[in-house]
Structure formats: C-alpha cells, structure tokens
Amino acid sequence: MEYEQLSLDELQKQAEEIAYQQSVIAQLLVKKREEGRGDFIRELRDLILERGYDLEDIASRLTRGARKTTSNNPVDKRRYVDPNDHERFYIRGPLPGWLKEQMQANGYDPASKEDRDRFKAERLTLIDP
C-alpha cells in the first residue's frame, strides 16, 4: 500500500487500526506466555516427581536467595474505553494517539496528569477487570 497517496483521515484510520492490532497482539502474547509458563511448570513438576524428589524441597532450593515476587503488589488493570468507538481503549502506559487527539480537541493537556485523570473520568467509560 502506498501511504503517500492516502488522505490525512485515511492515514489516521490506518494508524488507529495498526495501534489496535498491536494492542490485540500484545494481549495475545501475554496470554501465550502465561500458557507456556503453565506448561513448563507442569513439565518441571512431572520431572521432579519422576526422579523421586520432593516438590517442596526443590522449590525451596530454587527460591533460596531469590528476590520477592511482585505478586503481592496489585497491578492496575482498569480499562478505559471510548464510548463512541469500543475498539479504542486505554489500559495504562503511554497514551495512544487517538486519546491524545481527543484530549487536545476537548481542551485538555495530555502532558498534565490532572487533565488526563479528569478526561478519563468525564469522557471515557471505565471497565474494571
């Protein structure tokens, strides 16, 4: 596809579609990694038992000296959705282009945390996990 021939609106639409596809792929990567980790743990458990070792003993030896996990630290999984286009969403991290544009179009400053929080509360739909 030759992007030079596209209008500004068409380019914006392409950019939004690519951003959406990237978010879907990122979510699938996380899911696949979790599935792979579960498979690995099952294989490791089976191997330990097959060789006649005690699971708790091996687990304690593996974690000796390891730093504490962050599993006790809850991760913010709130999801904000554009009420006008449910394919547009924001979870956390860098603001997507569509969100910055909407903020600026409505008089908010994307660089201001206060404006970002106010915009999310007033203009986006919050979906808790």
Explain the layout of strands and helices.
Elements: H1 8-50, H2 55-63, E1 79-82, E2 85-90, H3 97-105, H4 113-123, E3 125-127
Antiparallel strand pairs: 1-2, 1-3
Protein name: H-NS histone family protein
User: Structural class per helix/strand content?
Assistant: mainly alpha
Give the tally of structural domains. Answer: 2
Percent of residues in helices: 55-70%
- How is the largest sheet built, in terms of strand order? 2-1-3
Low-confidence stretches: none
- Outline, from the CA principal axes? elongated
As an assembly, this protein is: single chain
Count of DSSP E strands?
3
Question: What's the rounded overall pLDDT mean?
Answer: 86
> How much strand?
5-15%
As a whole number of angstroms, the C-alpha radius of gyration is 22 Å
Number of helices: 4
Outline the biggest β-sheet.
Answer: 3 strands, antiparallel
Distance between the termini: 38 Å
Q: Could you characterize the architecture of this molecule?
A:
The chain is mainly α and 129 residues long. It has 2 domains: 8-65; 76-129, no CATH class. It is built from 4 helices and 3 strands. The chain has helices at 8-50, 55-63, 97-105, 113-123, and strands at residues 79-82, 85-90, 125-127. The chain has a 3-stranded antiparallel beta sheet with strand order 2-1-3, covered by helices on one side. Strand 1 (79-82) and strand 2 form a beta hairpin. The longest helix is centred in the first third of the chain and has 43 residues, at 8-50. The protein is elongated, with a radius of gyration of 22 Å. The model has no long low-confidence stretch (mean pLDDT 86). It comes from Thiocapsa imhoffii. This is H-NS histone family protein.
